[in-house]
Design brief:
By secondary structure, this protein is α+β, with helices and mostly antiparallel strands. Helices cover 21% and strands 42% of the residues. It is built from four helices and nine strands; from the N terminus they run ααβββαββαββββ. Strands 1-2-3-6-5-4 form a six-stranded antiparallel barrel. Helix 1 crosses helix 2. It is globular.
């Protein structure tokens, strides 16, 4: 389907992909950012489904977020932060381009597989451009970022005035720099 779909991300960085998937699985409802016709941002809630090597974004027929993506496929998806302020499993954001699935038999098959809507709906899969996981480790804020072009990078920022520190590049097949 897409070049930089969930399966490509998962193949490149299986442990990181599992941590991101687990964070999305904690809550069913997340926040999608799209661009309105005038270019201003729109935030809306939606459920996310990761199956068959794709990250799926499903929406009600004619929804404004679906119209936004049909016009400009760029999006940002943010995990539900959950209760309280601690977020022990961190914070995740995925950016990319949404590709709409419009083939009626494929839409029907997806609805049957997921027990999803039988009424008209929009379904998009994600072409990933960036996956970010932010967490606290001791006194450090740890920012792990994956892009198709640069692989996985990790920055650590302390609570002082020191500049962020990049973790050494690991010698892994999923990291082109390694």
């Amino acid at each position: 389907m897409t070049t930089n779909n969930w399966a490509a991300f998962e193949k490149a960085e299986p442990e990181f992909a599992e941590a991101v998937r687990a964070r999305f699985a904690q809550y069913p409802h997340h926040v999608l950012g799209t661009l309105r016709k005038d270019g201003s941002p729109r935030l809306a809630g939606l459920n996310v489904d990761i199956r068959g090597g794709e990250l799926w974004l499903g929406m009600m027929a004619g929804s404004m977020k679906a119209r936004d993506l049909q016009r400009d496929p760029r999006f940002a998806l943010h995990t539900n932060p959950g209760e309280g302020e601690t977020m022990p499993d961190g914070d995740v954001r995925i950016s990319g381009r949404a590709v709409e699935l419009v083939d009626p038999p494929e839409l029907h098959r997806y609805a049957e597989e997921t027990g999803g809507p039988s009424h008209p709906f929009h379904l998009f899969h994600a072409d990933l451009t960036e996956v970010v996981h932010i967490a606290v480790d001791g006194d450090d804020l740890v920012v792990r970022t994956w892009t198709p072009a640069h692989g996985l990078r990790t920055l650590r920022r302390g609570n002082d005035d020191e500049p962020p520190r990049e973790d050494p590049v690991e010698d892994t097949p999923g990291n082109p720099a390694g």
